[in-house]
Amino acid sequence: MAEKKDNKQPVQTQVPGKVISMDDYRCHAEGCKAKSTKAGFCEEHFAWFKAGLITKEGAKAQDFEKKFYQYQATHKKAA
Ligand SMILES: [Zn+2]
After folding, report:
1. 32 CA to middle of ligand 1, Å?
2. Are 30 and 59 in contact (CB under 8 A)?
3. How far does residue 4's CA lie from ligand 1's centre (Å)?
4. Model confidence over 1-31: pLDDT tens digits?
5. d(CA 24, ligand 1 centre) in Å
6. Between vectors from CA 68 to CA 64 and to CA 71, what angle results, nearest 5°?
7. What is residue 43's three-state secondary structure?
8. What is the pTM of this model?
9. CA 55 / ligand 1 centre spacing (Å)
10. C-alpha–C-alpha distance, residues 52 and 71, integer Å
């Protein structure tokens, strides 16, 4: 009998039988744990999204570094 090994879904379930939908209320940006306030992003990442730094899925834009540099220049804060 041939074994099928095409099930490559990562197992991350910590709580069996429970679907955690908290993600819907979190910022979509990578690594951000803040809760979303606008369009699925926190305040900061919503600004990033508006500036084109990240997609609506929270992935970085292709020229993220360049855009981020411009973004920082635009949003410079007096330290
Ligand atoms: Zn965020």
Report:
1. 5
2. yes
3. 39
4. 656 666 665 655 555 665 555 556 889 998 9
5. 13
6. 140
7. helix
8. 0.64
9. 12
10. 9
